[in-house]
## 1
Amino acid sequence: QAQLVESGGGLVQAGGSLRLSCVASGRTFSVYNLGWFRQAPGKEREIVAHLRWSDGTTYYTEPVKGRFTISRGNAGKTVYLQMTSLKPEDTAIYYCAAARFTMSTSKDVEFWGQGTQVTVSS
């Protein structure tokens, strides 16, 4: 059974840092790209960052550039999202996502994790 399992969310003060982890298991995710989306209350789910597994190319949405870093682990199919200089507007549920091709919108995603809450207090 294909699974994406996230961890690492929590409550942090503005200016703080968190690292999210996502482990892909249960099927051959070798050709899948991994990324992170987030959804704040009353808003649509949006792409935060993604990583093209074949060559390590990364993409970041503009509001997180320079503050968030997506990277992959050395063992298995693991992706991280290091978040620094967090702001209250980063508060959302963060979802790990997998897709074989593009990952521009939630419609492109083939597999989702269960989500992890990130709350940034002011």
Note: The chain is about 0% helix and 50% strand.
## 2
Amino acid sequence: QLQASGGGLVQAGGSLTLSCRASGFTSADYTIGWFRRAPGKERIGVACFQHRDRTTYIATSVRGRFSISADSTRNTAYLQMNNLKPEDTAVYYCAGAGRLIVSSMYNERNYRHWGQGTQVTVSS
């Protein structure tokens, strides 16, 4: 199971940290992905982290502003979002998969486990 939290309302230029707590995962061969669905748009991959090889994927639209990390001791992954923009407004989901290569990380079809989503709203 995955449980996402940390969303909220923030002004443009502000920061938020989303958390994704995992339970029931025992393998070190996992990938955590953060996806988002903006109003009227498809869900897209934002940031992904593969634990075994320490590889990451960051979408171009958020590169330099968002970062992903994971704390295995706490079974929690984080999405640090800085310099937020109104276009970052979306429902954010965390998802879990096995060991994925970078070219597969941003494809939601490769993820089997999904959290419930947390709303992020950025006001201008």
Note: The CA atoms of residues 10 and 122 lie 5 Å apart.
## 3
Amino acid sequence: VQLQASGGGLVQAGDSLRLSCVASGRTFSMYNMGWFRQAPGKEREFVASISWSGTVTYYADSVKGRFTISRDNAKNTVYLQMNSLKPEDTAVYYCAAARQGPGDFNYYGMEFWGKGTQVTVSS
């Protein structure tokens, strides 16, 4: 699976952004998908994940209630809708795919990674 993330940018605190990640190659719908982020000087951290069917989602506590992950298997695309952005959301955002359960997503368990997209939130 090849993954390509897009949609990042520079926004102000309180604004919204929607990230997209398009997959190609092997059957997209076979994989659970997730988003991670990495801020300068910090480790890559889990943000959100979604099951292959789209019916089960998980979120990091820091984004719960503000971010929504979704997917469209017909378009081989997973989305991350980010609302009420905060400066601490500033990071490079990566999409990832794995057959690992979405409730168990972690950096070491991902099978495929996309190149990141930069999100910068100014105060």
Note: The mean pLDDT is 95.
## 4
Amino acid sequence: QVQLVESGGGLVQAGDSLRLSCAASGRTFRSLAMGWFQQAPGMDREFVAVISRSAGNTYYADSVKGRFIISRDNAKNTVYLQMNSLQPEDTAVYFCAASTYAFPGNSRSYDYWGQGTQVTVSS
């Protein structure tokens, strides 16, 4: 089992930045690929970014490419999502997820999920 706890969400204005954190416990963190997903009200959960086990590979949704950066610190069992130039359309609950697959982009490939953290961007 893996427990994931997100933090760092909040209310910001358009153009601001936020950094989300996700602390993992319960299994060797470095054996897991980590992803971030977003879910806006009334919408399906959507892929945002993924980082491979060793942090050697990252991949982003087109909507956040160039603005968001995913990173991880295997010594701290933590994955981050640096969110820059936030826009109102980024408003959503952001979920951290862990996968035993090498580089998963689909939510069905993730085995463990956090409880989510709310990000609200005002115009």
Note: The CA atoms of residues 83 and 96 lie 14 Å apart.
